[in-house]
Design brief:
It contains 17 helices and four strands. Helices cover about 65% and strands about 5% of the residues. Strand 1 (about 165) and strand 2 form a beta hairpin.
Length: about 325
C-alpha cells in the first residue's frame, strides 16, 4: 500500500524535476483523489477480510476458488459416508480435520490480511487512474490548468467503467490492463520474465513447488528496488520501455500514449527518490545515526547489544527507528 500510495508523489517529483507543469498538475490531482480512493479501498479491505474469515474466495485471488473447493470437499465427504469403506471414512475424517484447521480464520489470519491489503492497494490505484483519465479529458477540453482538479473531481465517475468492472456483491474490480499491472507491481506478484522466469516454471513442478513458493515476490521486490537506483534502473525492461516513449513498447505495460509522460515522470521520480535516500543514507551512516546489519564478529555484535544499538535502524534524537520492513527503500539503503 505504501508503494501504491507513492505513485503520484513520485510522478510529481519527476515532473517537477523535468519542469513539466502539466504533468505536475496531473500528479497533484491524483494525490488529491487519495481520500476518496482510500475510502473505497477500505470498503474493499473489509469486504475481502470478511470473505476470508467466512472461507470465501477473495476478490483478486484468481489461483483457486476456496469456497467452491471446500463445498466440493464436503460433498465428497457425504458420498464417502454413504458408500465408503470404514478405512475410507477414517481417512476422510482425518484429512477433513486438517482442512478445517487450515481454513480456520485464526490460522488464515496472515493470508486474509494479505488478500484484503491487496484489494485495498489495487482499488486505490484504480481510483487514481480514474482521476488521471478525468484530468486528461479536462486538459483535452482546454480547461485552465488551475481548474482541472475541480472539474476532474466532478467527472471522474464517468471513467469508472474504463478502469473497473462490477463484480460480485456490487463491488468494483480493477480490469484495466495498466491499473492491473500497477497493482501487480505493488503486490509484488508481477509475472517474471527473462532468466527469472525459470522460478515460475520450477514452481509448476509438483516436487519443486515447495522450494520456490515465494520466488516471484523476491524477484519483484528486487526489480522495484533497481528502479530506484541510478545505473541499475536501466537493467529493467519496463524502465527502458517507458523512457523510449514507443507506443508499442508502452502498450505492453498497459500505458496509453497520452499517459506516457506521467509514466516517465514516475520513473524519473523514483530515481530522484532513490538518489535522495542514497545521499541521506551516506550522511546518516557517516554521522553514526544509521545502522546496517550486526557486525560479523561476536565482539562487535556483543558491543552493539551492550549499547542498545539495533540493526537496520535510524537514530532520531535518542530513539532508534527500524527501516527493516519499508519496501523497497530498505534494500535501496
Amino acid at each position: 500500500n505504501l508503494i501504491a500510495t507513492l505513485r503520484p508523489f513520485q510522478a510529481y517529483i519527476g515532473a517537477w524535476a523535468g519542469g513539466n507543469k502539466e504533468e505536475m498538475v496531473v500528479a497533484a490531482s491524483m494525490i488529491n483523489s487519495l481520500r476518496a480512493a482510500f475510502a473505497e479501498g477500505m470498503d474493499m479491505f473489509r469486504y475481502n477480510w470478511d470473505a476470508g474469515v467466512h472461507r470465501q474466495t477473495q476478490t483478486y485471488d484468481i489461483r483457486y476458488d476456496l469456497g467452491e473447493d471446500m463445498r466440493q470437499w464436503k460433498q465428497i465427504g457425504e458420498t464417502i459416508q454413504n458408500i465408503g469403506t470404514p478405512g475410507e471414512k477414517r481417512a476422510y475424517a482425518a484429512i477433513d480435520k486438517v482442512a478445517d484447521f487450515n481454513n480456520n480464520p485464526w490460522v488464515r489470519y496472515s493470508t486474509n490480511a494479505m488478500g484484503a491489503g491487496d484489494a485495498l492497494a489495487r482499488t486505490v490505484i484504480g481510483r487514481m487512474e480514474m482521476r488521471q483519465r478525468a484530468v486528461r479529458q479536462a486538459i483535452k477540453d482546454r480547461v485552465d490548468l488551475d481548474d482541472v482538479t475541480a472539474i476532474a473531481r466532478k467527472t471522474e465517475e464517468n471513467f469508472r467503467k474504463e478502469i473497473f468492472k462490477e463484480g460480485k456483491d456490487g463491488k468494483w474490480v480493477v480490469h484495466d490492463k495498466g491499473a492491473m499491472m500497477a497493482g501487480d507491481e505493488a503486490a509484488m506478484t508481477r509475472n517474471l520474465e527473462g532468466a527469472a522466469r525459470a522460478f515460475d516454471d520450477l514452481n509448476e513442478i509438483p516436487l519443486l513447488r515447495a522450494f520456490f513458493p515465494f520466488a516471484r515476490t523476491g524477484v519483484n521486490a528486487l526489480n522495484l528496488t533497481f528502479e530506484h537506483v541510478p545505473g541499475l534502473a536501466r537493467t529493467q525492461r519496463k524502465f527502458r520501455d517507458i523512457l523510449s516513449g514507443d507506443p508499442e513498447r508502452l502498450a505492453q505495460w498497459g500505458i496509453r500514449p497520452e499517459d506516457a509522460a506521467n509514466a516517465r515522470a514516475m520513473a524519473e521520480g523514483r530515481l530522484a527518490m532513490g538518489k535522495a535516500i542514497g545521499t541521506m543514507t551516506a550522511l546518516w551512516t557517516l554521522s553514526g545515526n544509521m545502522t546496517g546489519d550486526y557486525p560479523y564478529d561476536k565482539e562487535g555484535r556483543d558491543l552493539w547489544k551492550l549499547n542498545n544499538i539495533p540493526p537496520y535502524s535510524i537514530k532520531v534524537g535518542d530513539t532508534w527507528i527500524s527501516y527493516r520492513n519499508i519496501e523497497p527503500f530498505n534494500t535501496v539503503a
